[in-house]
Amino acid sequence: MRNYMIIGALLAISSSILSAEPSATVANTASPPAETPAMATDTPPAPDKSNPTTPETTSATTEESTAKTTPAATPETEKSTAKTTTTTTTETTTATTEESTAKTTPAATPDAAQPATTTDEKSTAQPEPAQPESTPTTSESKPATTTTATPSSKLVPEAVTQALKRIIKVDFDKVSITESALKGLYEVLIGSEIVYVSDDGHYLVVGDIRDMKTGQNLTDDKRAQLRVKELEALDEKEMIVFAPEKETKYTVNVFTDVDCPYCAKFHTEVPELNKGGVKVRYLAFPRAGIGSKTYNTMVSVWCAENRQQAITDAKAKREIKSATCNNPVDKEYELGKRLGVSGTPAMLLPNGELVPGYVPAKQLIAFLERKSKAKSQPAAIDK
Fold first, then answer.
1. What residues pair up with 355 in beta bridges, in sequence order?
2. Same-domain check for residues 248 and 358
3. Cα–Cα distance between 339 and 334 in angstroms, integer?
4. pLDDT tens, 364-380?
5. Would you call 260 a catalytic residue per the annotation?
6. Are residues 11 and 40 in the same domain?
7. According to the UniProt record, where is the region Disordered (predicted)?
8. Is 257 tagged catalytic?
9. Both 306 and 260 in a single domain?
10. What is the pTM of this model?
């Protein structure tokens, strides 16, 4: 009889377990939601521990709870009726299922907690590599509008500097690049030469820019500024100077050649210029170049004891004594070429204006007077 009661109790327990299985599934499905996102980003072992919603996990849990419940339910069945045993067993089974769920949850929680923390760290760390990626993008986008530092005060497009480096065979550190008055053109100063380059580096413009409203030659004004700087660096002691006995009103710097006919004609009028208050300062410019016969003659003139007399004799085709010394002939000749002197005589005024060719004394004095009063636009010389 006892055996029949035990068998009946076991049948009741099996029925109660089968009826309680959907409840266990619901309980497992309602487990903490944090485990589901943790599985999406966790390492591969995590799904076996943290996914309680799969049928395999539920069946395993039910079988485990059945194994644990069976021995615990047997003593209770022996002390009560079959009906009471069924009710008690059902409650025990439910409790066991919940306990097994609770056991499963803590077991998954540590594993899930670590991936969750890891996921947060990864999500926090993800923006950090994004910043270096954006930084190179910014630096790589610069070449489209890259600007390069030059001896000028502003930066210029890379296209301009690259174009100049292809065509200029001089030290680029001595090249000055600035914005011109004409939009889209950059002014390039190479020694005393001024050219213009388009901002895209495609076009080179050689010539002067004039203001159509005022008639002002903007390019020549820039050249004049450069010449003034060169003049300020000169030492008058290295020149051959003919100064007025009285007040000096005007000063002209004359690049001269002792074998130049018009230079000789100009020299004959120096006394008249001195009377008009004009100081004449001669600079050597042997047109035949360094090492030529004229060059050697001019070295002898600049090395003579009386340089004024020596240059007067040389221009008059009188023989002068040969002499050598530490002289400025080379330096003044190179200066003349830098300033744009191509022939003699060439007069350089204190404002940097270059007046080429011979000008009679009376016209030159009148010209200097007008320039002194106007002090603006270049005055025309009366011929």
1. 347
2. yes
3. 9
4. 999 999 988 876 454 44
5. yes
6. yes
7. 22-154
8. yes
9. yes
10. 0.56
